[in-house]
């Protein structure tokens, strides 16, 4: 999992991978702004196809 922080709050894109990460298969991506979900949240299946895609605004 990759996640980024700015001033102790999540900020940017959080990326999760299926195990093993070596094949770089995404599990999900979520975008944060000032510690809150904001923007696209995408969930993928193990074949990298999009299962769910939502947009969250502040």
Taken as a percent bin, the fraction of beta residues is over 45%
Order of helices and strands: EEEEEE
Q: Structural class, judged by helices and strands?
A: mainly beta
Quote the distance from N terminus to C terminus.
24 Å
Number of strands: 6
- The residue-averaged pLDDT reads 88
State the main characteristics.
two-stranded antiparallel sheet, 6 strands, 0% helix, 58 residues, 4-stranded antiparallel beta sheet, mainly beta
Describe this structure in words.
- This protein is mainly beta.
- It has one domain.
- The chain has strands at 5-6, 9-10, 12-17, 26-33, 36-44, 50-56.
- A four-stranded antiparallel beta sheet has the order 3-4-5-6, with no helix packed on it. A two-stranded antiparallel sheet has the order 1-2.
- Strand 3 and strand 4 form a beta hairpin.
Give the SSE map:
Blueprint: E1 5-6, E2 9-10, E3 12-17, E4 26-33, E5 36-44, E6 50-56
Antiparallel strand pairs: 1-2, 3-4, 4-5, 5-6
In brief, what are we looking at here?
The protein is mainly β. It is 0% helix and 59% strand.
């Amino acid at each position: 999992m990759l996640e980024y922080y700015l001033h102790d709050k999540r900020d940017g894109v959080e990326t999760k991978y299926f195990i093993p990460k070596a094949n770089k298969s995404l599990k999900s991506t979520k975008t944060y702004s000032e510690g809150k979900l904001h923007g696209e949240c995408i969930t993928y299946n193990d074949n990298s196809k999009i299962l769910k895609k939502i947009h969250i605004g502040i």
